[in-house]
Structures are given as C-alpha cells and as structure tokens.
Amino acid sequence: MFTLRQAKVLAEIISKHIKTAEPVSSKLLAKSRVFKVSSATLRNEMNGLEELGYLVQLHTSGGRVPTDKAYRFYVDNLVAQSCFDIADGAKKRIRSAIANGGNDPKEINKTIAKTISDLSDHLIFSNIFESGDCFKVGLSSLMEFPEFREFDRMFQLTSFFDHFETLFDRMEKDFFGRQDFAPNVFIGRENPMGGMKDEAVITVKYSLPRQHLGSMTLVGPTRMDYEKNIGLVKYAADELNRIFST
Q1: Measured between alpha carbons, how far is 44 from 221 in angstroms, rounded to an integer?
Q2: pTM
Q3: For residue 73, what is the domain's CATH number?
Q4: Residue 92 Cα to chain centre, angstroms
Q5: Could you give the count of Cα atoms lying within 13 Å of 122 in the half-sphere of its Cβ?
Q6: Within this chain, do residues 51 and 118 fall inside the same structural domain, yes or no?
Q7: Same domain, yes or no: 236 and 186
Q8: Is 204 strand, coil or helix?
Q9: What is the spatial distance between Cα 138 and Cα 49, in angstroms, rounded to a whole number?
Q10: How many CB atoms lie within 10 A of CB 83?
Q11: Beta strand 55-57 with 64-66: parallel, antiparallel or unpaired?
C-alpha cells in the first residue's frame, strides 16, 4: 500500500493526464505548487508508484502516465467520494431529451443517447431489452481523442461498433441481466465486451415506458473524465427510473 502523499501525487498525475493526454513529469508537478516539496522528492514518490504498478514510463526521458490499476484506484477511492452532480444546463438537456421522447421507449432511448454523447463527446450505445433495438452514436466524436489516431485502435473500435448488435445479445444474458440500476465502470481489461480491452466503459440499466428496460453504454479512452461521465449517465438513469419505474 502507498502513503497519503503518494495517493495525492497519483491523483494529481491522473488529473493532469486526463486534461492533456501527455505524460506527467516530476518537474511539472513541482511547478503546479500543489506540493510543497522538491522535484526530486516527487520523482522518488513517482518511482515508488511505478514499482507498485500505478504508473508507467513510456520513454526513458519522459514523464509517466497512469495504468489501468491507477484509474481503478482513482474511480474507487477518489471519484466514488463525489456526489456526481452535473451542471444545471446538462440536467435541463437530459430532462428535455426524455420529454421529447414522449411515451415511446425507442425514441427515448435514441434521444437520451444523442444527448449524453453530445454532453460527453463519447461513444454511446443504448438498447432496449428483449426487443433487440439498439442505437449507437458518437463514433466521430471519439475519433477526435489522440488515443484513437492510431490505425489499430481505430480499426478495433470501428469493428466493435459495426458488430455491437451481435455482441449485445450475449452481453444481455451474461452481463446486463446481473447488473443493478447503479452505474458500473470497467477499465481496460476489466471490460466484459470483447475487443475493448484498451478502453473504459460505463454502463447503466434503467426503466422505460410500457414496462420496458433499457441500458446505456458509454465508451471512451481510459483517460476519460470519470466524474463527469459517471455523473451524466447516473443523472439520466435516475431521471428515467423516477419517471417510468413501476
């Protein structure tokens, strides 16, 4: 286990990496004035975190980036303490999307997926259980992230995108059937979806009109803004459950 200062160093590195997509160095941390210690001390703390598997150095002369293990710690211990409140404007857009769908489960699933994709700039899949209706939106937004500029990553993601309906049939039985109504976060190789071992996924299940159940799956890089995205998905699901649960 690591020290309180190492936890703070890790949280700051993750925060900076989420914003910039760049490796974080001890010099950069020292300049931030968050820590009242030298760059050398911060470098030692980062070395310890690397030995524990929370950081990795991609190039010998560069800074470090968080591992999947680091993001899991971040979500479980730091993000989990958040109230997941989102901006009032985002709440209004989500409520409007639900209202615009009327009493049609398929239309609601489509409008809410579009809205969450617009607000998060991430890929969204929404589904209605038993009917087999699937809707997907946001692939072009996801391609703007530097992680997906590599051909292999882009090909992997588009292949998953094209075959999602087939994969969802298995997921509905093996995964969503066991999931409750709280958001679940899967990071990297935790991901239950085949072919998505380099991404992070947030899933949630919710009520729809006419006693239908739906699900939403948000897909993005492991370097995503977990607090914001969990908040968006959670608020949408909570509103749908409040309105349509029996």
Answers
A1: 28
A2: 0.90
A3: 1.10.10.10
A4: 21
A5: 27
A6: no
A7: yes
A8: strand
A9: 35
A10: 7
A11: antiparallel
- Higher-confidence position of 10 and 143: 10
Which of 158, 182, 160 lies closest to 171, judged by CA? 160
Q: How confident is the model at residue 139 (pLDDT cuts 50, 70, 90)?
A: confident
Closest CA to 28 of 8, 12, 51, 48: 12
| Residue-level pLDDT at 162 | 72
What pLDDT does 194 receive? 64
CA 210 → CA 42, 126, 146, 186, 245, distances in Å? 56, 17, 41, 30, 10
One-letter amino acid at 41 equals T
* Domain final position from 53, 81, 109: 81
* Residues 124 and 218 grouped into a single domain: yes
Domain that holds residue 77: 4-81
Instruction: Give the pLDDT confidence score for residue 115 in this predicted structure.
Output: 98
Q: What is the mean pLDDT of residues 77-96?
A: 90
Residues 74 and 95 in one domain: no
Q: What one-letter code names the amino acid at 82?
A: S
Those residues with Cβ within 8 angstroms of residue 80's Cβ, 6 or more apart along the chain or in another chain: none
CB-CB contact of 198 with 222 (8 Å): yes
> Which CATH number goes with the domain that contains 146?
3.30.450.40
Lowest mean pLDDT among 72-76, 93-97, 138-142, 218-222: 138-142
User: What's the pLDDT tens digit per position in 147-187?
Assistant: 888 777 777 777 777 766 666 666 665 566 666 778 999 99
| Same domain for 169 and 187 | yes
The Cα 77–Cα 66 span in angstroms is: 15
